[in-house]
Specification:
Length: 687
């Protein structure tokens, strides 16, 4: 089916395109419209459920706050204060001990009860229990904790909250909270034992002098009012299930979906309840306790945050409705969108057939004429079109094209004749040029071989010139080094000569100093002889002096010894000086011979330096000549390379010319063949 639409007539294709475009747009537009409306409707459903839950929660808070206000008002009335004082005085008067029971059967109590009760009974009658949830009113002693009065004479009348069976009950808890805070207080629902049914207590203090708590005024409340707030659907017109859940996950109101009492019996442990008990608020789809998907709005009631209630607990406020019911408007919108889409699709098909017919008919007629022209019949006439749209313009353009085509075919026919004759002449000329180019190419090939041999010979000569120049440069370097070494040797020989001369002068001075030392030693020898003679004379004089000259004799003896030692040392030094003089003379002779030898070496070094300098000049000249030869060889090689390159380029150009000539010859032949084909092709058209 799809293949027929794609390959069929233009009519089918246009209809298919219109239908496909519409089919693609309708779902997209429908989906976007539906999605946008769906989001708004779903959000409206969420907001509506959220408003329902918030409305019920606010009504519940207002109910509790109103109850506190009623209790405050009653606690401050003279009737309540008087009743508390009267009952307190009655108990004080009748008790026989601290643990005495409160007598509720005496005639006196009955009389007091009859006078007190109308005030409180009228309040309860005014606030009917089914509409207010007020079950009973209590007066509890602030001193003894005894239930001194109940408006409905309940079973707990006269009970002692501190010592009796009600110790630990929710009523006792409320009583203790009021005494402790001296403010209104409230305790959660629990099964109250004397009545065996759920009860919630709210109480306010009855303050006396110095803010002393003379008593506690308590309201016992049932679930009736709470159930009317959270169980009714009259305000919404929908099957919304609204209920309260405590921290023990037990319900604090009656569920609309249950027949039996669910207060403090049915446990609700859903995700929404957990979130609300954690102080969170929100709205969304959740599973309820019956595992059904419901739209749920949840939040904490806020009892513990409400100013004036004195509650130490809070509840979760839940409002839920079946998801299908909540989103019924969304489903209805979906059905309407689908119906509208089908209607639009049908209209699109009808419009597609009409528009496709107006387009395809003139196109088919025009296609038949174009087919005749395509077969070569240029005599076929395009029908005149009166349309002002693109199809009319197309027909006019094709008609103009056919007329132009007739003129072009006529001109091409004339050109084909000229082309055929010109192609023959070109083929003949190209053949002659090809033969001439082949001979030129052969001659250039031989020239190229000769130039290549010349280039190789020049290259070998250049390499040899480079080798000679390199050796000459090395010889120049060697000669320069030899010249420098000879100069250094001559300089050093002269330095040695100077050192030898200086050494000879030093030895001469040393000889002169030796003679001076000999003269000094002769003086020392004379001095020693005189000292010896003086010592002998001193010894003689000491002998003459006798005993008094002994010390002088010792000194004379020591002087004589010193003179002898000086004579011996002088002799030893004289012998050393004699040896020194001999060595000095030998050194002087060696120095003179060394100076003569050095002078001869200096003369030889000067001669060698002059010879090496002459050799250096000759080698340097040879090196310059070798460099010039090398430079000439390099220039010659470059010139030959350029000539060789030029000849190679000419040879390549000639070869390319030969190849091009061959190609031109082939092209000329193909041109002649093409002229024949064009002639055959043009002959197919009838003009």
């Amino acid at each position: 089916m799809i293949r027929k639409l794609v390959t069929g007539s233009l009519m089918r294709k246009l209809v298919a395109c219109f239908v496909l475009v519409s089919a693609a747009q309708i779902p997209i537009v429908g989906y976007l419209s539906f999605d946008s409306a769906k989001t708004g409707l779903e959000q409206a459903a969420l907001n509506k459920l959220d408003s329902e839950r918030e409305l019920r929660k606010n009504e519940l808070l207002a109910y509790f706050l109103g109850t506190v206000q009623n209790l405050r008002f009653m606690a401050q009335t003279p009737a309540t204060r008087s009743a508390a004082e009267t009952l307190q005085s009655y108990h004080e008067y009748n008790k026989s001990g601290p643990d005495s029971a409160f007598d509720t059967n005496s005639e006196l109590f009955k009389q007091m009860y009859a006078s007190i009760n109308p005030f409180f009974k009228s309040f309860l009658e005014t606030h009917e229990v089914n509409s207010s949830g007020y079950d009973d009113i209590y007066l509890i002693s602030g001193t003894h904790g005894i239930v001194m009065f109940t408006a409905m004479r309940s079973k707990d009348l006269g009970a002692d909250l501190r010592r009796g069976d009600l110790k630990g009950s929710s009523l006792t808890k409320l009583y203790e909270m009021v005494l402790k805070t001296k403010k209104p207080s409230m305790v959660d629902f629990s099964i109250y034992a004397p009545l065996e049914k759920p009860a919630l207590f709210m109480g306010v203090p009855i303050l006396g002098e110095g803010d002393a708590v003379d008593g506690v005024l308590v309201m016992r409340m049932g679930p009736e009012k709470i159930n009317s707030i959270f169980g009714s659907t009259a305000a919404t017109g929908r099957s919304t299930d609204a209920y309260l859940v405590g921290h023990d996950f037990l319900m604090r109101s009656q569920s609309r979906s249950e027949q039996d009492s669910s207060m403090l019996r049915t446990k609700i442990n859903t995700e929404a309840v957990k979130n609300a008990l954690q102080g969170k608020s929100g709205t969304g789809l959740f599973q309820n306790s019956r595992n059904a998907t419901v739209l749920t709005s949840y939040s904490p009631v806020g009892l513990n945050d409400a100013k004036g209630l004195g509650a130490d607990f809070d509840w979760a406020a839940i409002a839920e409705i079946n998801a299908d019911e909540a989103f019924a408007s969304v489903q209805a919108l979906k059905d309407r969108v689908i119906l509208i889409a089908l209607i639009i699709a049908a209209l699109s098909v009808l419009v597609a057939f009409v528009i496709a017919g107006t387009i395809s008919k003139p196109v088919v007629a025009l296609a038949e004429k174009v087919a005749q022209i395509g077969e070569g019949d240029l005599t076929s006439e395009i029908p005149h079109q009166t349309r002002d749209d693109e199809l009319g313009a197309l027909a006019t353009a094709i008609d103009r094209m056919v007329r132009n085509l007739r003129e072009q075919i006529a001109r091409i026919t004339e050109g084909v004749v000229i082309l055929s004759s010109s192609a023959s002449e070109i083929s003949t000329t190209v053949a002659e040029v090809a033969a001439s180019s082949a001979q030129t190419s052969s001659a250039m090939t031989e020239t190229t071989v000769t130039v290549e041999e010349l280039r190789q010979a020049a290259q070998r000569a250049s390499e040899r010139a480079k080798s000679v120049a390199t050796n000459a440069q090395e010889s120049v370097k060697t000669s320069a080094a030899g010249k420098q070494a000879t100069d250094d040797t001559t300089q050093r020989m002269r330095h040695i000569k100077e050192q030898m001369t200086s050494m000879g002068q030093t030895v001469v001075r040393l000889s002169e100093h030796s003679r001076a030392i000999e003269e000094i030693m002769a003086s020392v020898q004379d001095l020693a002889d005189q000292s010896n003679l003086l010592a002998v004379n001193a010894s003689i004089e000491a002998a003459r002096a006798g005993e008094h000259g002994k010390g002088f004799a010792v000194v004379a003896h020591e002087i004589k010894n010193l003179a002898d030692q000086s004579r011996d040392a002088t002799g030893h030094v004289r012998s050393i000086l004699e040896e020194t003089r001999k060595w000095v003379n030998a050194v002087v002779m060696s120095a003179e011979e060394g100076i003569k030898a050095v002078e001869g070496g200096v003369r030889q070094s000067i001669l060698a330096g002059e010879s090496i300098e002459k050799l250096y000049a000759d080698v340097e000249g040879s090196a310059r000549a070798a460099n010039e030869i090398q430079l000439s060889s390099d220039q010659q090689s470059v010139a030959i390379d350029q000539v060789s390159g030029g000849i190679s380029s000419i040879d390549l150009a000639i070869r390319q010319n030969v190849s091009s000539t061959s190609q031109l010859e082939s092209a000329a032949k193909r041109l002649a063949d093409l002229g024949g084909q064009l002639k055959d092709l043009v002959e197919r058209y009838r003009i």
